[in-house]
Every structure is written in structure tokens, then in C-alpha cells.
Amino acid sequence: MLSSFLKAAEIVSNIKKQEVPLPISQKMGLITPLRVGDDLSLKSSLVSPVNYDREITKLLYNHTEVILSEGQEPIKENFEKFCATISNIDKVCLIWGLYKTTYETLGNRQFECSKENCKQKFKQEILLENLINEDTFTFWNEEVPFYEFIYPIEIEYENKFIYCFESKIPSIRDNNVLMSNLSIDTLQNNLNKTGGIFTKQEQMALLCKSISIREKGSLITADTPKTENLQEMLMTFSNYIPHVVSEEFFIKYRDKFDKYYPKFYTNIKCPNCGDIIKFQIDLEVEFFRRSVFGRRESGEEL
Ligand SMILES: [Zn+2]
């Protein structure tokens, strides 16, 4: 039995919940704020990327209830189902919800007006609620759920061969599986070099269910060389896939799926000339930096 004090503490901790749409899994998330212990559990998991990713996933899971359709009661899905049926894109929305309900603000950020004759420098506070605009969320619009959906991308090479990539939207679980194949050094290196968590090769492995290669003019048969193995795909993308092929892959993938990626941005007005600066943020990278390096490294001005 909880003491009456603990009961009161529990009730207070439950009063604040933030709703956020999960556009790809077509659910609504209800998020509760971070608590003191949460922060620590993340820091201690930084020795390996896969642990870190699992901790983040657990953290998001612990703070999330879902509403499956309008008017229904919020429920807690089991952890496995949560990871398999919530997309990596929805995860960014969960992070927004967690930030919103915990902090409300991203703090003050430094800006410089881009107008040639102005160049005014100023600070402005960025509130989480202002990052949501009419075009922020685009809802999944295919016949089957995202985790069953495959979009084949075929790319011809040297007029002789055809690469076929079975592309997809990755789930939280797919992301975790990829993380378990990377070292902390690789990850640090990626962040320093590209500002992102994954390199291009790793991203391709995350976005593909399989790759096959066949001669032009032939059909895919049981004998067509094909792999669904993540290690093999990582090796292939690092060593064997021509750069032009990967470029074309990303163009075609983006044409199909980019619209689903949530756009968190706000328009900032220059206090001097009134010109508008668009402030866009990758909340996943922001969250990562903040939990790895602390508040000061997140771009926030104190
Ligand atoms: Zn200005």
C-alpha cells in the first residue's frame, strides 16, 4: 500500500499530460513529463548506442499512453507492440510531446537577421507549442499499416544491372536493431561529422527491408541475388553500392516519404527590420545532444 503522501505525489505527477498526434501509426499519444530519475537513467546508458536507444525507447514508452481512435480511453500497449507498431517518425512526435510537457520551452536561441543591411543579432525564446503549424503533421495514407508497407525502388546501373531496394518506413524496433550494430565511437563520429545520428549508408540500411541485384531485362526470381540481412546490407552500402545509385535512392525515397516527416518550425521576426527568419529544428538530434552533452550543448543560450 502506498502511504498517503506517496498517493498524493502520484496524483500530482499524473495531472499533466500532453496530447500529440502520431501521424504514421495513426494513433494519439498522451505524454507525461520527465521525472528526476529519468535524466540519470539516460546518462548512465551512454556507454553504448544500443543501450542508449533502448533507454530512450523505454523512457518514451513509460511516459506514453495511446488512444487508438477518437473517443476511446487511453491504453498502455505492451512494450514489444509499441516498438514494432510505432514508427521512427512518430518517435520524433513523442519527443516533441515529452519536451512540451516537461519543459514547455527550448530556451533562448541566438539569431542573426539575414537581411544584408540589417544583420541584427538577437536572442529569442522558442516555445514548443509554437513549433506546430498547419503543415506540421501529414497522416499515413496507404491501404496497409506502415509496418507492412513496402515501396520498391528500382535503379538502373550502367544500362546493365538493376538494383531493387524494398524501401519502408522504419519502426522504433528497426532503429534499435540498427543501433545495436554501431559502436559509440561510430556514433560520436557521425554526430561530429554530419550532425546526424546515422551516416548515409546506415540510413539506407534503416530504410530498406531488402536489396536485390539482377541483369536488366530479367525478372526477379528465386535465384536473383537478394539479402534482408542487416549486416550484409550495411556492408553492401558501405563497400559496393555506387554513389550515384545511393543518390538516386534518396531522391526516390524522399519523393515518396518526405511528406510524412513532421515539420517543426517557427517564424521569428527580426526586432530591428521585421524580416522573418524560419527556425527549424530536428528534435531527435536536439534530444540526443541534450541528453548526451547536457543543456549547454543543445544550442540553448543560458
Ligand atoms: Zn533584420
Tell me the fraction of residues in β-strands, as a range: 15-25%
Percent helix, as a range, is 25-40%
Total beta strands: 11
The rounded distance between the terminal residues' Cα atoms is 43 Å
Descriptive labels:
binds zinc ion, 11 helices, three-stranded antiparallel sheet, alpha+beta, 11 strands, 302 residues, 21% strand, four-stranded antiparallel sheet, globular
Task: Please tell me about this protein's structure.
The relative contact order is 0.15. Helices cover 39% and strands 21% of the residues. It starts with a helix and ends in a 9-residue tail after the last helix. The protein folds into two domains: 16-137 and 262-302; 146-250, no CATH class. With 302 residues, the protein is of the alpha+beta class. The mean pLDDT is 88. It is built from eleven helices and eleven strands. It binds zinc ion.
